[in-house]
Amino acid sequence: MKLKSAPTRGRTLDHAAFVYDALEPVLLLGKQAEYDRHLLALLKLTGSDRVLDLGCGTGVLTRMIGDRLDAAAGGESVGIDAAAKMIAVARKKRASDHCRFEVMAAENLAFEDAVFDAVVSSLFFHHVQMDLKEKALAEAFRVLKPGGRLVIADMHLPTTWMGALVSHVSRWFFMQPQIGENIRGVLPEVIAGAGFLRPDIVATYFGYIALFTTRKPEA
Ligand SMILES: C[S@@+](CC[C@H](N)C(=O)[O-])C[C@H]1O[C@@H](n2cnc3c(N)ncnc32)[C@H](O)[C@@H]1O
């Protein structure tokens, strides 16, 4: 049965699904493996964790997470993306018995409350405007267990002149005001506003991508 994309006002990438795996290593300047390993380390996984990847694209990171979990102990990695074509590629190339993919908008998650140990998101938040950033983070907060970890990698205040150039050019080239919000530095406030502890920036890549870590307070 043909998958249908989830309704959203976010900038989805259905049109790029079949070239995305070839494009991303170029966009990450050959550092994709290092970047993904960094996110994995920040997630501090244990085998029984249930992990949600928001805006998972073709599921490279989701599958890497799944490979570190123990299905017998309940470990599971779930990737969601609003673009049906992204999910179709992810399912075909990366699904396993403890790694699954669902078409879903991050601002409207079809999961029960408090069912995930960690939520991760890579390069998703610059695809959605402010109210959807807020809703997606409220949803991440809702589906995380108390004490659950949140790891976000996304465009943020540029830290180098090259980072500033790339991010401002992207904002205007892609006509994407959502990028403008990110590079004005809105994410820490929005993350804390959803109820998370104030996030730490633990690393930056290329002068415009920041890695944030935080967690949902214990009940
Ligand atoms: C730049 S890609 C990032 C993919 C992957 N996480 C990575 O790091 O390569 C951003 C993804 O967010 C998805 N997206 C955009 N709006 C969305 C929404 N409201 N809910 C879920 N996914 C969304 C797009 O379809 C796209 O696959």
Summary of the model, kept short:
The chain is of the alpha/beta class and 219 residues long. It has eight helices and seven strands, in the order ααβαβαββαβαααββ.
SSE arrangement:
Layout: H1 20-27, H2 32-43, E1 50-54, H3 60-67, E2 76-81, H4 84-94, E3 99-103, E4 116-122, H5 130-143, E5 144-155, H6 161-173, H7 177-183, H8 187-193, E6 200-205, E7 209-215
Parallel strand pairs: 1-2, 1-4, 2-3, 4-5
Antiparallel strand pairs: 5-7, 6-7
Helix pairs in contact: 6-7
The structure holds S-adenosylmethionine (SAM).
S-adenosylmethionine binds next to loops.
Give a written overview of the molecule.
The protein is α/β, with parallel strands linked by helices and 219 residues long. It has a single domain (14-154, 185-215), classed as Rossmann fold. Helix content is 37%, strand content 22%. A seven-stranded mixed sheet has the order 3-2-1-4-5-7-6, sandwiched between helices. Strand 6 (200-205) and strand 7 (209-215) form a beta hairpin. Helix 6 (161-173) runs antiparallel to helix 7 (177-183). It is globular, with a radius of gyration of 16 Å. The chain starts with 19 loop residues before the first helix and ends with a strand. The model has no long low-confidence stretch (mean pLDDT 95). Residues 8, 10-13, 24, 55-57, 81-83, 86, 105-107, 122-124, 127-128, 132 line the site of S-adenosylmethionine.
